[in-house]
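Lab manual, section 2.4: Encoding a predicted structure.

Procedure: take the sequence of the chain (462 residues), apply the prediction step described in section 2.3, and record the output as structure tokens. A sample record is shown.
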Amino acid sequence: MKIFHKVFICMFSASIVTGTIALCVLVIEQSKALEKDIHRNYLSLAGVMSKSIEAGYLAGKWPFETLAEAQEHGKIVFWLVAKPDGEIILASNSSMWGKKLSDKYFSSTIKSFDTKFEGETVRLIIYPLEITEEGKNWIFCMGYSLEPIINARNLLLERGLISFAVLTILVAIVSFLLSRDISEPITKISKAALSVARGDLDQYITIRTDGEILQLADNFNKMVRDLKKQRNELKKLLKQKDEFIYQLGHDLKTPLTPISALLPLIIEREKDPKQKELLDVVLRNVNYMKKLVMDTLELAKLNAPSTRFDLKRVNLSSVVERVLYNNKPLFMENGINAENKVREDIFVKADELRLEEVLNNLISNAVKCMPDGGNLTVSAEERGKEVVVHVKDTGIGLTSEEKERIFDEFYKVDRSRHDLGSTGLGLTICKRIIEKHGGKIWAESEGKNKGTTISFTLPAYR
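Recorded output:
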């Protein structure tokens, strides 16, 4: 055997092995991502349903139609509402009403776990409601089936194993039988496999040959088509979820608008101080619900592919200065020293209004994290084709877990505060806006009480 053949066989084998490993990793990651996305969607749906229940409680009428529609669209196995003593007072299945839940179902934070329900494995989401009784929260419990996740995962694993087996057999055959002419098609296959492993599924291999190499290319193209089909199905499900949330938000917004407008007039005319105090509580909750609906609609709009930004040349320092000036009363009220350290010669390619929205959200969030006052600094640096912006505070800081979850929908760092000024969507909206600009956003903190730095990237304007 010639040296060229020996070297070629080694290189070829290494390329195919790398490609198959990459494909296996892709299948596993696709499975994990599918389960994570489905769970995140149900968490979002549970949050919206919980807020509907809270609104119905305040209005004195349970939103059965809204909950039934959510159950049908979300393919929920069951849902229920229980008081702190464990009594189920509301459920999708009337036979569950009046039954008792054990203490393990109650928590002041959102939690989820798997269990059996009527012989089927379901995942429970426990969502504490903003309804209290003797200082304890009511809970909203929702169960959804794990069967679709298990089937999809098994299908992905099966196809991954089949693809791996086919590729392994073809490597053994091709390594011994084919000659120098196969180097180009093998290179194409290897590059395409690595592209797929990186998430680029717009790959199609055309080879002017026959035999095992052609079969390998056909199997690879079939596998990519299957992966694209599965990804498109997942996108379709996510789109349906966004459309449902958008429609639900509009339905909730309609009654909230006149309520929030009329309540101040009623409060102003009310003479009884106790009644006035109760009406103030109702108004605060109505305003919170309205803000939650508006943020949810904003998030759904940002998730829509049709949303476009007006990208243009923007002086970053000017925008930061304007945002800090507009928030000056907030800084004075909370004893915060804010400073703009962005150079005046830094320009970015961005939608100016959306950029202001991001900075306002980050600054508002930083102020909430500095209850005793402190320092807030906005700075920026140029890194090649990007500009990295830092919003740094000297507040309560973050744990490692909080840094990972802080941009998740409806996530709040301190849930025990029941802060009606925060919906848990502000940082999620910031993330969507930055991603629409082609950038990324992340949080850094050395730990509790050591401050936090939120950084994000924007394309530099040259």
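Check your result against the sample. The chain has two domains: 1-254, 312-459.
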